[in-house]
Structures are given as structure tokens and as C-alpha cells.
Amino acid sequence: MLVKQIIKSYQEGQRLKIEDALVLIEKGDFLEVARLARLEARKRHGNIVTFVIDRNINYTNICNVGCKFCAFYRRQEDKTAYVLSIPEILTKVEEAVDLGATQIMLQGGLNDNLDFTYYLDMIRSIKNKYDITVHSFSPPEIYHMAEITSLSITGVLKKLKEAGLDSLPGGGAEILVDRVRKYISPRKISASQWLGVMEAAHNLGLKSTATMMIGSMETWIERLEHLDKLRVLQDKTHGFRAFISWTYQPGNTELGGKKISSYEYLKFLAVSRLFLDNFDHVQGSWVTQGPVIGQLTLAFGGNDLGSIMLEENVVKAAGVNFQMKVQQMVDLIKSAGCKPAQRDTQYNILRFFE
Ligand code: SF4
């Protein structure tokens, strides 16, 4: 189909197929695609752009997987390898609560020396002491816990939920195509295993986000296959709250290479908003793109700018260190002509900023 026909059928309510999205990417006008994506975001959320205040706590950087794109992980014997104790984690949570955080995201490497009780104790201790959402453990971590306990994926998730886990972040998805995964992260779970963990979580009432890292070595078709797999699972479970994409950061990684352009990222973002018609929220990435492009994502279909991260270590390890305070976030959103609002993990609005 021609670009015009694809846009017409999209406006008439037809779902974009992979081949349609590819035509929009290859032949569509950059600003026309952006306009459509912006309209879609406006239709769903009006002028409101949200953010959350949270802290990422990386409980260990020791990891037995060794993904080629990861600058964060360390081997057991490395001088900078660490595991946080529960009291150290609680201190970080307390600092976050004092600064107004509503969400804690615990994520770490797959460390063979930690047993399952460490994870359960971590969640129970936080929940016993603080009224805060624990949005934690991505599918590779859940899979790792199943391996060390011989429990099923559902068994692990049930125990984590009983301990107080509220929802799951979508990390570890990168590109949900095994050709790419086999090259950039050969020891990590497969695409279908990642989707399987998410399906099991959704079936237990644990909602999640879905993520994607673009720009390592995947083709456009593979990017669209990733979106398609998310859309198919979302049709089945309705368990994804948001889609969050960011760009590969090659600094300090084994994989190396170059960053993709902001143009390519923004075009992808707009197409993802159009393609994922069953996702309510699409997040723009200021953490990898910086505040200026982060703000521009609001013109390309984004309706959320993610988190004011009180702590972030993974992207920082790749040499990229953008930080933002609440007032800066508010100003950024306002100066894009939108209405800033703080949200919680469930995307409920907590407060507006005039
Ligand atoms: S991306 Fe995650 S699983 Fe891969 S090496 Fe880094 S910490 Fe380990």
C-alpha cells in the first residue's frame, strides 16, 4: 500500500500491519508520522504529560550472563563488584521516601551467590516499613529465581507477590527476536521466555511495562516484530501498562558501535505509538536522549516522561548521565505546551503543576 492509503486506513480504525509500518518508516514523511502519533497521544491523554518519582536500586552488579551491550555488570572477582545488604537497601528506600518517591525499582545482575530468600526478605522488609510501590524484577531475574529454586515461573511470581511485589518492569527485552538476542546476549532468556514470564505475571494480576532497546544490531523489520509480539500478548492479557523504548548506549560495552540518531529514535517512537494501539501509555526517554530530545518525544506520540530517577546506575555505566529535578521536569513539560502531572506506578494522577 502507499503511504496515503496506509494513513487513511489507520484513520479509519484499521490496525497497522508490520508491512504498513515499514512503509511509513521508509517512505512516510517524518513530520506527518509525528503528527499522527501526537494526535493519537492527545486523543488518549489530552494535554497531560506524566512522570513518576522513583529510585532504581541495583542490589547487585554481579552477573553471570555478560550481555555484550551491558556496561553495568561485573564478575564476582572484580574490585567494583558489590551486593547490597538489606539494611543498605532500606536506607536507600528511606532516602527515596523522604524525597517524595512513590515507587522503588529493584533490579540487579543474575548473581549465583544469592538465594531466593534474599529477594523475598528484600521485598518484605521494604513493605513492612514503608508505604511504597515495589515495581521490581524483570523477566531475566524471575527466570533466574526459578532456576535457583526449581520452582515454576508462576511459583516464583506467587511467592514474590505474597511478599509484597506490586508489579514488574519490562527490562531484559532488548529486541524480542532471537537472531539478535543470540548475538548481543547469548546467555540471556529467549524472546519467548521473556514473553512467557510476562504472561504468567499478568495472569496472576501482576501488571508490568514493556520495554525495548533499539540501535544495537537489529533491522527495522526486527524492531517491528518486537512491537508485534508485544501487541499480540497485550491482546491476550491486557497486562502491560506502558511501552518504554530507549536507545542502545555503546560506551564501555563489549559490543561497541555507534549510537543511532535522534531522528531515527523519534521516528521509531512515533511509529510505535501508532502500532501499539492496545497500549495506553508510551514513554519518551530523556535518560538516554537528554532533556531536549526528551521534550521532543511529546511531539512524537509520547505522553509520559518516565521517572525522576533519584538513582540510576545502568545507563550511567555507559558514560551517559542526564539528571533531572522535579522542577526541571515540570518546566520541560510546560514549555512544550503540555500540562505536567506526577503519577503513580498505576498511572493515576497524584498532582498537577500549574
Ligand atoms: S543486561 Fe542484565 S543480564 Fe545482561 S549482563 Fe547486564 S546485568 Fe547481566
Can you characterise this structure?
The chain has 13 helices and 10 strands. With 354 residues, the protein is an alpha/beta fold. It has a single domain (40-352), classed as TIM Barrel. Strands 1, 2, 3, 8, 9 and 10 form a 6-stranded mixed beta sheet that branches. It is globular. The structure holds iron/sulfur cluster.
Ligand catalogue: iron/sulfur cluster
Residue windows where pLDDT falls under 50 for at least 5 positions: none
The rounded distance between the terminal residues' Cα atoms is 45 Å
| Strand content range | 15-25%
Number of folding domains? 1
Task: Give the overall shape, derived from the CA principal axes.
Answer: globular
CATH fold annotation: TIM Barrel
What integer is the average pLDDT? 95
- How much helicity do the residues have? 40-55%
State the secondary-structure class: alpha/beta
E-strand count:
10
- Number of discrete helical segments: 13
CATH architecture descriptor text? Alpha-Beta Barrel
What would you say about this model in short?
The chain is α/β, with parallel strands linked by helices. It has a single domain (40-352), classed as TIM Barrel (Alpha-Beta Barrel).
List keywords for this structure.
354 residues, alpha/beta, four-stranded parallel sheet, binds iron/sulfur cluster
List the helices and strands and how they pair.
Layout: H1 3-11, H2 18-27, H3 30-45, E1 48-58, H4 86-98, E2 103-107, H5 116-129, E3 133-134, H6 139-149, H7 153-163, E4 167-168, H8 178-184, H9 191-203, E5 207-214, H10 220-237, E6 240-247, H11 262-275, E7 281-283, H12 286-296, E8 304-309, H13 326-334, E9 339-343, E10 349-352
Parallel strand pairs: 1-2, 1-8, 1-9, 2-3, 4-5, 5-6, 6-7
Antiparallel strand pairs: 9-10
Helix pairs in contact: 2-10, 2-11, 3-11, 4-5, 6-7, 6-9, 9-10
Bound molecules: iron/sulfur cluster (SF4).
